[in-house]
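Need tokens for this chain, all 389 residues.
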Amino acid sequence: RLDLTKYQAKVSRSIASRPCRVAVVGAGISGLICARTLHDMGLDVEVFEKSRGLGGRAATRRTESGLSLDHGAPFLETKSRLWDRFAHSWEQDQVVCPWQPRFGIWTQSGSSGAVTQRDLANSKLWVGLSGMNRLGKHLAEGLTVRYQATVDALQHRESTWTLRGIQVGEDRASSSFESGPYDCLVLAIPAPQAASMVPGHCSWKSGATQQTMEPVWAALIEFQQPWQIPWDAISFENHPCLDWISRESSKPNRAAQDAWVVHATHSWTHEHLECKPEQVARLLLESLVDLHSESLPKVACLQAHRWRYAQPKRTDLGNLSGAIYLWDIDASLGACGDWITPAEPQGVLGRPSGLSRALESGAAMAGEILRSWIDRNPIQKQAIQQMLF
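Here are the structure tokens for all 389 residues:
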């Protein structure tokens, strides 16, 4: 008969001959799925996040009236059975829910433009049940996360990593910190920041240096009355200003008050990058006037947010092209994020699927760390018991 005590010890044993301590810098979706996977496999993981929140661009802001608006990534689109299963699991946990907006594409037509309805029946769009930041909060449950901790220096010595930086406390006072040693280090931050932090001998530094990120201005608009247009989301092709708008109140489990998020194009954002948020918000609001014959309702609340590192600019990363994560095996130093993954067709939505690429990159990064650590620290195989009968 099976020895249940020895069997339990076998299946719950460590995956390697010695424990592995991992630091993940950046609590966006890519960093969190990486940390979550490693934590669930028994590794000791610590996450460093420079802001006060989780999820990176999967972000939600509350207006003065209490509305939740997704001013970063508007949704998660799943395109594979693997991530479909993840999304359905998160749905069961009341983290995300499906979103089927009335969707249209704006294209230039003569001296003006027109919106054409598009069918999303074959698209799988998911939104956070109470906001897109719900996904980040869910992934971080049970993880050790140091908030408002800005890492500005890395030291690699004797096969381990030490992190140094500035920590902002609850009293808003700043103090320096040093943390480590860590066996592995993952940078889940924008390419320019990652490239500037890693040492010159890093095998992927040159590729990261070549990658740039595009900025996006976002406006958050709350109307006093519903804006009577027949769409909940519009993607724009070659518009001089607008890239995307979405009716946040059309998302499940959101307040009925009519509210919109407006994303500007990269080129328009570059031209207005250093403008004041109040000025940007007014300009983006004015750009909505010509979209429909229905006049804009009175505005109850108007804000703007600048995403300096919003979306990766597709560039040739040389010998790193085609990778979905970066890994220097000699230094146990990795990077993950949507800026690494190859470009994908934008499909019927006309949108880059940043969140899905971030998830894929972070999960693959975790898998590489697990493989590398187990290979370096194998466990000698032993029989569960000497005799079965």
